[in-house]
Specification:
The structure is a homodimer.
Chain A: E1 3-9, H1 24-44, E2 47-53, E3 63-66, H2 71-80, E4 86-89, H3 98-105, E5 111-115, E6 121-126, H4 140-150, E7 155-157, H5 161-164, H6 173-179, H7 183-190, E8 193-198, E9 201-206
Parallel strand pairs in A: 1-2, 1-4, 2-3, 5-7
Antiparallel strand pairs in A: 4-6, 5-6, 8-9
Helix pairs in contact in A: 1-3, 1-7
């Protein structure tokens, strides 16, 4: 049986830190494109996507669970009653691929985790979900390591830049244009984003809409 | 025979983008501490460290090659005459570990590469070094992929955040304090750096010198 890959998703007004380079509708389209890449990676890694949405949303390649509550509250309700292994993976990881997801869910430990940049947590695999609870926001990676230790769970920190790279800010778009291979990259290109090199540093610039 | 791990190193006035939080002597000590972690990772991954230094420098755990020329010029001279596999790994990767280096040097491809954040290249393993030449600076990852393609070399992009995380700016110090396990982390702690959380974002602050 495929492992449930729970993907929290906010369909309305997501990724506000990209407001400097994208209108709200564009941010919503880009968030959906990143989600498509995460769904494809989860499936390629042997998981069955289950979207945990804060507002009504529908798509053919994933089951949907609607829960307008906060991220921690809704995830912890779900974990508490889960009887089989669960992967929690964020929706803003457009470099994710099946190989990285496979490494995560094939861990020999009780739990596997991939940190995000800046202390966050981008993916957590739990063999027995009811033994763990999440605590996102701030330095959540350190909080999750502590929760695992308190629960007596062995933890494997999986070394993947593809799952480590979450996209929140304009600078992060560089990574999508260089390493992306899916919908998020195509979305950025269709919005007119290209790489720019100024003073030896790589950034992005936005040209005319295509 | 151990694979040569060539580590370019600048002993004098390195890491100038950290000038906002460290004096020159502190930056030099921190650069040496990061180098120690890279040397240890290279050794743990089965490689023999060879420092390519721009100025006289000595340490007991690595061989030294002095070459005040530019990075590309000195590396390409070295590659052109190398008869056995070579790993080139940057000195500012304090999260590097033996497992990541092992994955890199055990690739089945002609060449394995780990991109840095922002389009850089943090590590390159070359089975036949004389078939390749480096071209660092700017979006070097894309340049290196093109050079490999032009030379007919198969390339494995190794998915490691430990080798992807190069430390150039104040924000990067967060990663060292969270994920570092060696000398660089100890150096930052001895300089009084700690994590700080402001408005949900994780940063570093510097307290009194210890």
């Amino acid at each position: 049986m495929a492992i449930d890959a729970v993907i929290p998703f906010k369909p309305k007004n997501p990724k506000t830190r990209l407001s400097c380079v994208m209108e709200q509708e564009e941010r919503e389209a880009f968030a959906r494109a990143m989600l498509s890449d995460v769904i494809a990676a989860a499936q390629a890694g042997g998981c069955s996507p289950l979207l945990l949405c804060t507002a009504p949303y529908d798509r053919p390649d994933a089951r949907i669970l609607l829960d307008p509550d906060g991220l921690n509250e809704s995830l912890n309700r779900l974990l508490a009653t889960s009887k089989s292994p669960v992967l929690i993976i964020m929706a803003d990881l457009p470099l994710a691929d099946g190989a990285a997801v496979s490494r995560l869910v094939s861990t020999a430990a009780d739990m596997a985790v991939v940190p995000g940049r800046g202390g966050g947590t981008n993916a957590i695999f739990l063999r027995e979900p009811s033994r763990f609870r999440v605590n996102y926001y701030g330095a959540s990676f350190l909080k999750h390591m502590q929760i695992a230790m308190d629960a007596g769970l062995s933890v494997d920190v999986v070394d993947s830049f593809r799952l480590h790279t979450d996209v929140d800010e304009k600078e992060d778009l560089v990574e999508v244009l260089i390493h992306g291979r899916g919908e998020a990259r195509r979305c950025l290109e269709s919005l007119g984003f290209t790489l720019s090199i100024e003073g030896g540093r790589v950034g992005v610039k936005r040209g005319a809409h295509k």
